[in-house]
């Protein structure tokens, strides 16, 4: 009889990267986390889809530039066919086309490969919990892009006004998201816990029908909060 306590469920993760020198060490390091099981390592998108079909899988850590089937198209197919599987992009590319392409395809997180192990595991955990994590560089690029697109048509913000029932704290949190702060940065700024920040984000996303963090940045800018 197994007398060990069950504990929290472990996240089942696929590591996808076409370079074995990146893929294998990353899978090994992530496998050391007490709440993560690396169930497969894939060299391209077709291998990812096959591993997800064999499942179960919670999160795919996805490179973008892979042969056969790239990360963006793989993310799009996963979003359509396996919406329960979260995708976190881990790539060397942080250009607008890559970022917007991945987020538009349904990626829940986007990190560059200068992210540390703690950043990656935090993003995987957040994605598994239905939250989004964006690298600071990515957030800054999204902010710049959103401001550029919003500038020629400031009246567009009136088409999606923020709901009246947002609390002052929820508006404050939305403004800080719009400024590019992470959950930890918001918590430090407001002197509250990250758990409290997550609660405020979940509430304001539900009230304002915000899809993800990128959408939150756009809404904050459109509302004049960022």
Low-confidence stretches: 1-5, 151-158
The biggest beta sheet is recorded as: 6 strands, parallel
Distance between the ends: 57 Å
Number of helices: 10
Structural class: alpha/beta
Q: Regarding quaternary structure, how should these chains be classified?
A: single chain
Amount of beta strand: 5-15%
What is the succession of H and E elements?
A: EHEHEHEHEHEHHHHH
Side by side, the strands of the main sheet go 2-1-3-4-5-6
**Radius of gyration, whole Å:** 18 Å
Shape: globular
Rounded mean pLDDT is: 83
Work out the helicity level: 40-55%
Number of strands: 6
SSE layout and pairings?
Layout: E1 11-16, H1 20-30, E2 36-42, H2 45-54, E3 59-62, H3 71-81, E4 86-91, H4 96-105, E5 109-112, H5 117-128, E6 133-134, H6 136-150, H7 168-178, H8 183-190, H9 194-208, H10 213-222
Parallel strand pairs: 1-2, 1-3, 3-4, 4-5, 5-6
Description:
Residues 12-128 form the Response regulatory domain. Pfam families: GerE, Response_reg. This is Response regulator transcription factor. Residues 159-224 form the HTH luxR-type domain. InterPro entries: CheY-like_superfamily, NreC/VraR/RcsB-like_REC, Sig_transdc_resp-reg_receiver, Tscrpt_reg_LuxR_C, WalR-like. With 226 residues, the protein is an alpha/beta fold. Helix content is 50%, strand content 13%. The protein contains ten helices and six strands; from the N terminus they run βαβαβαβαβαβααααα. It has helices spanning 20-30, 45-54, 71-81, 96-105, 117-128, 136-150, 168-178, 183-190, 194-208, 213-222; strands at 11-16, 36-42, 59-62, 86-91, 109-112, 133-134. The chain has a six-stranded parallel β-sheet with strand order 2-1-3-4-5-6, with helices on both faces. β3 (59-62), α3 and β4 form a beta-alpha-beta unit. The chain starts with 10 loop residues before the first strand and ends with a helix.
